[in-house]
């Protein structure tokens, strides 16, 4: 019997109440972690600087191996003026079958003037029967920039598993000086109808979003992002639009993690070169 099939224990019913608190600051052109406080099962590795001291790469770990019913996880991240950080995860996140309780993660991010955060977690796998909600809120000061993506797989496709039971919610909000720049609320209840509906998964297993909000994005960049998709051989569906805050939004629905990651990384490189005048350097954890 594997982990997600075990009968609930008292520990599982209680769940993890973990948190992570990070603060980054610019020190003479070098971005440093000036405050780090963690509580299991969340943990952060020491900073990496594969592209020089200006950009701090951080890797967040979930030491319990996955999220179960009753878990309450929270992250609080702040970048002080002109700090630049890239945050990713050590591996794909797993949300296990619920033991009868919902699991929830809350992420609050504050970006001060001139700061830039690239929020690039690896894939999240939502097991059949999971009950999970993530709330992510970003507060952008004028002159700050945000690039984030979310790649979610419903069911362990390699085993033939589909998301027939359970519930998944993802709420993302980006605000600036009390005004919403982008609000995205997604809800997927498990079941054949929504999985097969053209307004749901349309028979696919993966949905993904990439959003950039900061410096205005030109029509030329929008077209280049579309061309980066159409120039590849692909099986899924994708689209590129401009957000209300003159940013860029990419959507994907398909069956291949590699397909969407390769496209997202191409778009990331495009935005890096066009708007930040810096080449994208893959975090080394992606290469393991």
Can you describe what's shown?
The structure is a single chain. This protein is mainly beta and 288 residues long. It has one domain. Helices cover 15% and strands 44% of the residues. It contains four helices and 17 strands. The chain has helices at 10-14, 192-196, 219-230, 257-276, and strands spanning 17-27, 30-39, 42-44, 56-62, 72-79, 84-89, 93-95, 103-111, 116-119, 124-126, 131-140, 145-154, 167-176, 179-189, 206-213, 237-242, 248-254. The strands form two sheets. Strands 3, 4, 6, 7, 9, 10, 12, 15, 16 and 17 form a ten-stranded mixed β-sheet that branches. Strands 2-1-5-8-11-13-14 form a seven-stranded mixed β-sheet, with no helix packed on it. β16 and β17 form a beta hairpin. The longest helix is centred in the C-terminal third of the chain and has 20 residues, at 257-276.
Summarize the structure.
By secondary structure, the protein is mainly beta.
Rg on CA atoms, Å: 19 Å
Q: How does the helix and strand content classify structurally?
A: mainly beta
Number of domains: 1
**Proportion in helices:** 10-25%
Question: How many beta-strand segments?
Answer: 17
**Strand content range:** 35-45%
Low-confidence spans: 1-12
Key descriptive features of the protein:
ten-stranded mixed beta sheet
Annotate the secondary structure layout.
Layout: H1 10-14, E1 17-27, E2 30-39, E3 42-44, E4 56-62, E5 72-79, E6 84-89, E7 93-95, E8 103-111, E9 116-119, E10 124-126, E11 131-140, E12 145-154, E13 167-176, E14 179-189, H2 192-196, E15 206-213, H3 219-230, E16 237-242, E17 248-254, H4 257-276
Parallel strand pairs: 1-5, 4-6, 5-8, 6-9, 7-10, 8-11, 9-12, 10-12, 11-13
Antiparallel strand pairs: 1-2, 3-4, 12-15, 13-14, 15-17, 16-17
Helix pairs in contact: 3-4
């Amino acid at each position: 019997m594997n982990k997600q099939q075990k009968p609930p224990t008292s520990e599982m019913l209680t769940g993890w109440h973990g948190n992570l608190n990070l603060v980054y600051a610019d020190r003479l052109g070098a971005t440093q972690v000036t405050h780090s406080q963690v509580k299991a099962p969340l943990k952060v590795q020491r900073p990496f600087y594969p592209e020089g001291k200006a950009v701090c790469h951080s890797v967040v770990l979930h030491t319990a191996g996955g999220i179960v019913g009753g878990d309450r996880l929270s992250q609080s991240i702040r970048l002080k003026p002109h700090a630049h950080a890239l945050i990713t995860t050590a591996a794909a996140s797993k949300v296990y079958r619920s033991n009868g309780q919902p699991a929830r993660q809350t992420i609050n991010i504050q970006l001060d003037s001139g700061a830039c955060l690239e929020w690039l977690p690896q894939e999240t796998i939502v097991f059949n029967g999971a009950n999970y909600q993530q709330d992510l809120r970003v507060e952008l000061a004028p002159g700050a920039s945000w690039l984030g993506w979310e790649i979610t797989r419903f069911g362990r496709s390699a085993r033939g598993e589909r998301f027939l039971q359970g519930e998944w919610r993802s709420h993302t909000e980006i605000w600036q000086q009390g005004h919403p720049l982008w609000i995205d609320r997604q809800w997927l209840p498990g079941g054949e109808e929504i999985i097969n509906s053209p307004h749901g998964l349309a028979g696919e297993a993966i949905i993904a979003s990439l959003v950039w909000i900061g410096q205005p994005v030109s029509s030329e960049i929008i077209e280049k992002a579309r061309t980066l998709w159409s120039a590849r051989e692909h099986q899924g569906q994708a689209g590129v639009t401009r957000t209300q805050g003159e940013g860029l939004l990419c959507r994907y629905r398909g069956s291949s993690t590699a397909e969407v990651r390769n496209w997202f990384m191409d778009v990331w490189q495009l935005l890096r070169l066009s708007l930040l005048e810096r080449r994208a350097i893959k975090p080394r954890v992606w290469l393991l």
